[in-house]
Amino acid sequence: MKMTFGERLKLLRGEIKYTQKQVGEIIGVTQEMVGKYERGTNYPGDIKIYIILAQLFGVTIDYLLGQSDVRVRSEFKDMCSLYEQLPNDQRLALQRYIRFLIEDNKRNKTSK
Prior knowledge:
By secondary structure, the chain is mainly α. Helices cover 71% and strands 0% of the residues. It has two domains: 5-64, Orthogonal Bundle (434 Repressor (Amino-terminal Domain)); 73-111.
């Protein structure tokens, strides 16, 4: 299951060792509001806050919102570039392997 916005916010904030107060000051909200964002009881009402947070943490908005596990677009572009260098038969093999990994990951999560 993908992480929520609040979970990602807390994780990313911890990675750069910022307090809720520091993040709040940067995005123009209180420390309490950042806590509510992290708990998932409130969400920013202004798209500009998401943009500032994504820039602060160096991630895409999709990653911040929990819609993607790719943190930065360059990571995705690099993967696409590598994929395009493969011949068709190896591309198909890679696609099968990725599907296998996804299914294996799902099985491992449900067995825990």
